[in-house]
Amino acid sequence: GTKPPPCAPSSWCFLGYSIVEQSPSALRLQEGTSSTLRCNFSTNIYSVQWFRQNPGGSLISLFYLASGTKQEGRLKATVDAKERYSTLHISTSQLEDSGTYLCAVRHSAPR
Questions:
Q1: Would the pTM count as exceeding 0.70?
Q2: How far apart are CA 14 and CA 12, in angstroms?
Q3: HSE (CB half, 13 Å, CA atoms) of 13?
Q4: Cis peptide leading into 110, omega within 30 of 0?
Q5: 17-19 vs 68-72, strand pairing mode
Q6: Is the bond preceding 5 in cis, omega lying within 30 degrees of 0?
Q7: Which InterPro entries match (predicted)?
Q8: Which of the listed residues 50, 66, 78, 93 has the most CB atoms within 10 Å of its CB?
Q9: pLDDT tens-digit profile of 3-56?
Q10: Do the Cβ atoms of 106 and 56 come closer than 8 Å?
Q11: Following DSSP, what letter does each residue of the chain receive, concatenated?
Q12: How far apart are CA 99 and CA 33, in angstroms?
């Protein structure tokens, strides 16, 4: 099959990132429970950014990382560039964690 362009029309493109399919694509959490979102890439990546889109539509950048693990409060993001995936772990979820989580990748260094 033909490879899709770095940003397919069905995906969002912004800041040179392409939004990647993630699993699960939608998630409902009970307060106080934990969950992990996973994002797989088909190509080599330079960096990954995780966002949360609030019900009002505004995007909040949660993490930016090229490899390894970063933690901020109850959120933890990891990137495994060799295995081509990233995870976002939410522990002890609270009401303010609600929203749509997006994973975006940059395939090359910013020019």
A1: yes
A2: 7
A3: 8
A4: no
A5: unpaired
A6: no
A7: Ig-like_dom, Ig-like_dom_sf, Ig-like_fold, Ig_sub2, Ig_V-set, TCR_alpha_variable
A8: 50
A9: 444 444 434 444 445 556 666 666 677 789 898 888 888 777 888 989 888 777
A10: no
A11: -PPPPSS-TTS-EETTEEE--EESSS----TT--EEEEEE-SS--SEEEEEEE-TTS-EEEEEEESSEEEEETTEEEEEETTTTEEEEEE-S--GGG-SEEEEEEESS---
A12: 16
What pairs with residue 69 in β-bridges? 78
Q: According to the model, what pLDDT value does residue 69 have?
A: 98
Contact between residue 102 and residue 50 where contact means Cβ atoms under 8 Å apart: yes
d(Cα 37, Cα 3) in Å, to the nearest integer? 25
Sheet holding 22-23, edge to edge: 22-23, 35-40, 85-90, 75-80, 68-72
CB of 69 closer than 8 Å to CB of 75: no
Domains of the chain: 15-22+31-106 (2.60.40.10)
